[in-house]
From TrEMBL:
Matching Gene3D superfamilies: 3.40.190.290, Winged helix-like DNA-binding domain superfamily/Winged helix DNA-binding domain
Protein's UniProt name: DNA-binding transcriptional regulator, LysR family
Keyword tags: DNA-binding, Transcription, Transcription regulation
UniProt keyword Metal-binding present: no
Species of origin: Marinobacterium iners DSM 11526
Residues of the HTH lysR-type domain: 1-58
Entry superkingdom: Bacteria
GO CC term, one of those recorded: cytosol
Record InterPro entries: HTH-type_LysR_regulators, LysR_HTH_N, LysR_subst-bd, WH-like_DNA-bd_sf, WH_DNA-bd_sf
One MF term in the entry's GO annotations: DNA binding
Family: Belongs to the LysR transcriptional regulatory family.
Lineage per the UniProt record: Bacteria, Pseudomonadati, Pseudomonadota, Gammaproteobacteria, Oceanospirillales
Amino acid sequence: MDIRSLRYFMTVAELGGFSAAAEQLHVAQPAVSMAIRKLEQSLQLQLFHRNERRVSLTDEGQVLLRHARAILQAVRDAEREMHELHALERGEVRVGVPGMLGSYYFPPILMAFRHRYPQLRLEVVEAGTRQLQQMIHRGEIDMGVIVADTPPDDLETHSFFQAQMMAIMPADHPLATRDNISYDAFFTEELVLFKEGYFHREVIDRLSAEAGVSPHIGFETNLIPLIKQIVSHGFGITTLLEMVVADDPQLIALPFEQPVWLDLSLAWRKGHLLSRANRTFVDFVLEQAGNG
């Protein structure tokens, strides 16, 4: 049983004759008759009464007609949806981003993407790098933004942005007049940090391990506005991307004496075929990064 045979069968049933069906299908009448005969042979059932002037369905043919209509409608629906997806008239992109990038880097990109492709649905999830990787593996999101210093072997990554982590402190802090800050000086201060699992925290954990010191953590929170408030009131210093404090005159961003650069990448499951909508999103992000 194939789609062509079902289409021929349904047309004969609805028009009541092989010749009429052949005319509507734009094929020769013997081709229709042969297709129906092969269908009956494969099913080992008679589908039409042929001893009448107008052919009519047997009881078995009535049952098959009901299924044929449903099957052919499903095929038409699938073809229409595939066309819409190909033309980007519909589709969904599920992407996970860390808090800093979700708040300060991605909003204009997401809005520009939505403006260019208004029919596509965007679902944006905020989480730490490690949690995003787990969500990708579980299929909860299509892709996520990760720090690609040591990308997992089971993820495909495409770098789109390099950012420098900066030491953030109040404008009146004793260290604020320096050109840069050493790791030793940074780790003598009380720190305001993200919780574990975020790349912000992983940077600090890595730097403190390399320096052989234990960081003095005064506050742990993933709320960026709260971190900025705590730091601006002199209750600790932190590390953030420079873009986060660019418009805040109360805060100063100093590079580390040994600069800390982060390579940020879009990542998805290796070997997983991205939908056309997701491929378009990846291309768009890379295009925007290149233009920036």
